[in-house]
Amino acid sequence: MPDKQSSRVSPRNTGPRRPCRRIAKSSLLHGRKVEIYDKTLERHTMHFSLTHLAAGVAVALLMTAANETQAAGPPLVVAHRGFSYVAPENTLVAMREGWKSGAYGVELDVHMTGDGQVIVIHDDTTSRTTGVDLPVSATKTADLQKLDAGTWKNPKYKGEKLPLLKDVLAEMPEDGHIFIEIKSGPETVQPVKKIVESGPWEKRVTIIGFGLTTMADAKKAMPERQVYWLRGADKDKKTGEYIPRGKDIIEPAVANGLDGLDVSWAGITPEFIKEAKAAGLSVHAWTVDYDKEVNRLIEAGVDSITTNRPDVVLELVNKATAAE
Predict the structure, then answer these.
(1) pTM given for the model
(2) Of 59, 76, 268, 279, which is least packed with CB atoms within 10 Å of its CB?
(3) Within 13 Å of residue 63, how many CA atoms lie on the same side as its CB?
């Protein structure tokens, strides 16, 4: 994600869901009996035509999808590039600190290396975080991992390497989650899929990115994964005010089968959230560190907040929850 909040910024909330009806195993042939169970009703046996049954299932699926896009509680907190406020971004130490902070998950950025590995780094060159200017996509992994990615943040982090995605996943705790932002193009989707599906962490990974084509490809390749489209916020040239997001991003996300929108805090309004959720999308905010905007987003009903300060945002979320 972009760097400065001043210039811009689930998985879906996994809190308790409303009980729903369950269709018991039975023949679906026309005219055969189908048993329906409900937690609040006694069991009944009815006759359904195949047409009626199909219609009922379709409605149930739509209702389930709608319920899943509604926040069942306070927003989840996601540590931006790990706990990047205290540790060098996109390093293993930052990820460890992010999980230790109590955040629901950590967000990280990935690029492809010159020899086809998926490496964790935000920029397409190594200059900003290592002091050595190498193009990530044209440099071998071994050479990239020789660089010091920690000293720029604090000398105590000297020697921190640029980690591979597989190494971060291998350290994820059992209750941890990772939001993988694909910074490069569609060519990264299959390598990411292979890594994500290689271990027990598969269900705790969400894919995010700014490229609509890349996100559409990711959803097709990994239909069981949550995939969110990242969007920024533009300013009105005359007033200087941020322009709320709307159908301009909702419709493409729906058309491409995506699960949610991960939007700059400045472009999110209660109206936008309502419209997006009515379309079956979850709504997530980035990157927010300060009380005023965090409280506004909590009140608006976002599903998650990505932040450089998970400690601060968690405290605000807990206060808001206690006040309800």
Answers:
(1) 0.80
(2) 59
(3) 12
Asked if residue 42 and residue 22 are part of one domain, the reply reads: yes
Q: Which two tokens stand for residue 2?
A: 């972009």
pLDDT at 148: 99
- Kindly state the tokens that stand for 293: 């905007």
Q: Which tens digit of pLDDT belongs to each residue from 205-262?
A: 999 999 999 999 999 999 999 999 999 999 999 999 999 999 999 999 999 999 999 9
264 in the same domain as 214: yes
Q: Which residues pair with 106 in a beta bridge?
A: 79, 178
Whether residue 134 sits in one domain with residue 27: no
Provide the domain count of the chain.
2
Per DSSP bridges, beta strands 33-38 and 22-23 are antiparallel
Range of the domain at 54: 17-71
* Cα angle: 257, vertex 260, 265; to 5 degrees: 145
Based on the fold, state whether residues 109 and 240 are members of the same structural domain: yes
* Tokens (6 digits) for 69: 């896009």
Contact (CB, 8 A) for 130 and 147: yes
